[in-house]
Design goal:
Length: 149
């Protein structure tokens, strides 16, 4: 299966949500982490949601993408590894995890789209996690800053 995109978020309504977006286009692939402090999110399915060196002028001119102009990473080279790692982790996950709320809600979600599937896959949780969630989170955050994984 060919991976089109993955979106990961974690947080809550009070503090906001951290988002990670990774998407492959015909020409390249990019990774973008948006911290909760920005109090914003993006729609990865929007065709204009694209970051590359070749469209840098378009990014600066676009009000929706300008705030992220210096935050994205090119992961074209790493894309096959991103796809492979997701295929190792996600098949064991259930669509939904619900835990008891004792203090504050810790909400998370993963949206993944493969070209061969008509709909995206969604995994969500509220104060409960898959057993390998920490491994997943450490791995997906490892691309921040352009580190090769």
């Amino acid at each position: 299966m060919a991976l089109e995109y993955v979106v990961y978020y974690r947080g809550n309504l009070a503090a906001g949500f951290d988002y990670i977006y990774a998407k492959q286009t015909d020409q390249h692939a990019f990774y973008l982490r948006v911290p909760a402090e920005m109090k914003t999110f993006a729609e990865i399915t929007d065709a204009t949601f694209d970051f590359s060196r070749t469209n840098a002028d378009e990014i600066i001119a676009d009000d929706k993408r300008r705030p992220f102009a210096s935050m994205w990473q090119d992961v074209s080279f790493q894309w096959p590894n991103i796809e492979r790692r997701l295929m190792e982790i996600l098949p064991t996950w259930q669509p939904e995890y619900r835990g008891v709320v004792t203090d504050k809600t810790d909400e998370w979600g993963v949206r993944v789209k493969f070209t061969e599937q008509p709909d995206e896959l969604r995994f969500v949780g509220y104060n409960d996690f898959p057993t390998d969630f920490e491994v997943f989170e450490k791995w997906i955050r490892s691309y921040e800053g352009g580190r090769l994984r």
